[in-house]
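Protein in question filed below.

…
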Amino acid sequence: MSQVKQATNGNRDPAWGDLCRAATLAYALLAVVALAVALTLAQPAFPNLTAALLFFAAVVFWGTWAVVPTLAVLCALGRWRLVRTARAQTLLLWFLPVFFTGVTGYVASLLGWIAAPATVWRAMGIAAMLGLGIGWVVAGWQERQALIDAARTAQAAALQARTHPHFLLNSLNVIAGLLPDAPHQAERAIENLALLLQAALSDPHPWPLAAELDAARAYLALAQLRYGDRLVLDWQIDCPEAVLSQRVPRWCLVPLIENAVTHGVARRREPTTVSVTLRVTENQLTVRVGNPVAERAHLPTRSDSGFGVGLAAVTRQIAARGGTVQQVQEAGWHWVALTLPLDPRNHE
């Protein structure tokens, strides 16, 4: 059995990561156009339409040469992780637009495109005010993202803590029963239990899909010892090797399998199949976990041994990554289907 790899949150600061996207540049250029329209309308009457269009084009040109270098520098600083404190980030978001606006104006004045130096100073004043506004907005957005990330981390930690206490006790009882007559099985069971505890006690940030599958296999190995022939596993994985390094929300699969065992195998005396299927189609991971149910059985709800608590926590984690979780009942089976978009850059 492969060991669970410790994973830390390797994502860049989301504020700086977003600055490197083409959409951010497009929005910034749209803001430049909007500012040019506002300044053109605010000017005294132009002698003719051509003069107004030339003024508008000059503002757009000036603004573009101020915005593009600003975003490029901020993107580079974010990638190099050179700016970490909120104060430094806010200062940069104010200084860089002013600096590049001044540089662009200075070059334009040297080329004779701008005759009055006061025009450059006015443009720098406008850039300074806009920079303060942008810095304030980004600082507020970062604070909001920090709160959201903290809430998600707390939810993931709570989900991990909820999954283990009763299962830990049952697993220890099974191991104690194996020790006299099957010490090798007991040793493997202890290794699986240690793997699960290691995953439960580590940080709740996203980790590789391979690690989540290892935890799921460890859980099923312990459940197999407890239920014996009553647990029949149908495990189908159709994923490219590269997908296994994709980061997924921690503990997104184990609770679904635990629910399938609890509401399927534990409630039956005859052999009961738990089906786990993973597929990758069109850059999207699909996971289906199912178990047979008695006829006329209803879908599990929040009152059914905490099923809704675990499912709701998994749903929130998956939704935060742009995925979905659905449960359906068909042909005597209860299924939970999890879909998660894959990011080619989201590898270890």
Residues 14-150 form one domain. The beta strands are 207-208, 231-238, 247-248, 272-281, 284-292, 324-330, 333-341. The chain has two domains: 14-150, 164-341. Residues 102 and 121 are 8 Å apart (CA to CA).
